[in-house]
Amino acid sequence: MKTDYYQDIRLFKYRTTFFWYLALFIGCIMLPLVLDEYLVSQLTFICMYAVAALGLMMLTGYTGQVSMGHAAFFAIGSYTSAILTSKGVPFLLALPAAGVLAALVGVVIGRPILHLTGLYLAIATMGFAFIVDEILVRWESLTRGNMGFYVDPPSIGPLIFDTEIRYYYLTLVVLILTLFAARNILRSPTGKAMIAIRDSEVAAESMGINLAKFKTIAFAVSAFFTGIAGSLYAHKLFFINPESYTIFLSIELLAMIIIGGLGSLHGAVFGAAFFIFLPQIIIMTKDYMPTYLQNQTGLEPALFGLLIVLVMLFEPMGIYGRWLKTRFYFEMFPLYKKDSFKREKKYQKAERH
Amino acid sequence: MGISVTRVFSLTWTIAAALGGIGGILLAPITFVHMNMGFIGLKAFPAAVLGGLGSLPGAIVGGLIIGVTESLAGFYLPEGWKDIAAWIILIGVLVIRPQGLFGIQEKKKV
Questions:
Q1: CB–CB contact B90 A127 (8 Å)
Q2: What's the pTM?
Q3: Smallest Cα–Cα separation from A133: which of A255, A11, A246, A236?
Q4: What is the largest CA-CA distance in chain A?
Q5: Which residues of chain B lie closer than 8 angstroms to A128, CB-CB?
Q6: Of the four listed, A64, A67, A94, A125, which is most buried by Cβ atoms within 10 Å?
Q7: Element (H, E) at A163
Q8: Closest CA–CA distance from residue A231 to any residue of chain B (Å)
């Protein structure tokens, strides 16, 4: 029962929620004990992409600004971290530096295009990503162009993250810190202002919210998270070149948060997991298919695309929507009706996270 | 109002796909036909946005500007500028005119 206004903005809604997350955390720590190295490396990729998706979620899911240029922030993070560590800067400094530089670029690019909306903004950010990509190719003295850049495994003090399991723990910790930061931003007045801007710019402005200021903050926060993810990506692959940061990455990140469910932190993680694990699952189920299907070339991408379309058709709110509906079903167990969820949803439109 | 939304939507999609197809027919003789041809669609976006969405003359002018810029940049500027010159112009135009060259500033309803 609600007895206090502060209950609305607590970090964990109920005390039980905290224990569920604690259980999940312990589960995540235990996972490398049961999984083989390959699957652990896939988990690392999920954590990494989830951080980037969280960044995009802050901008697109919570502030309502569509960006198709997040590959650029990802690339800036990667290259900053790679160049700094190659010059002898410790990883513990290079990681935040990657985020900060990405955030600065985010402010510089975000500021002049603040008043763009919808498709115009998407195309402008996409153009920005193309320009950054070209700069990475041409600025050979710094980025070594298409030759690529070799990156060493990161180390903090005497601890070197050179095995899959160690790197998994590193990304997991970064992911949790990012989630924590995102959740805290969202329950602060800044986060509420961002959500207000998403729901109606005019209404937000008339309530005294400075649109330019909060949109710039959203751009900066979003670019910061994505830059951090880019840094993790560079140190995971050991080798980066501009080919890894094309428009496909931007689209993939956007698809992740849409499939995961726009406007929810869970959604970013679900979306990343969906994008990394689904191709694996498709390959695993291939053994059970008839032979003429198995030998079909291009089967995996086709099935992958088909599944994305199906998820979007049957669950417009993404995986998080399905999760909410399932939870709601069990909470209301005998009384659940198809429309009861809809009504609930409308009532708390500005509260979905 | 008696308008069949489904029909209008399918008709729009049909016309859009047909026009895209005609564009493809015109493009094929001067480039190779290959799997990644779809990338040319990425050039159609800035053309439409530059001219202003919802404006036919805008689409023509936008397409012309993008195409001419790209060719001129490929000829006069150092290598690498060809691909991004159009984008730089696009962002520049959008900063000054957020609705594109011929787009109409939409009145927002609260």
A1: yes
A2: 0.84
A3: A246
A4: 67
A5: 87, 91
A6: A67
A7: none
A8: 25
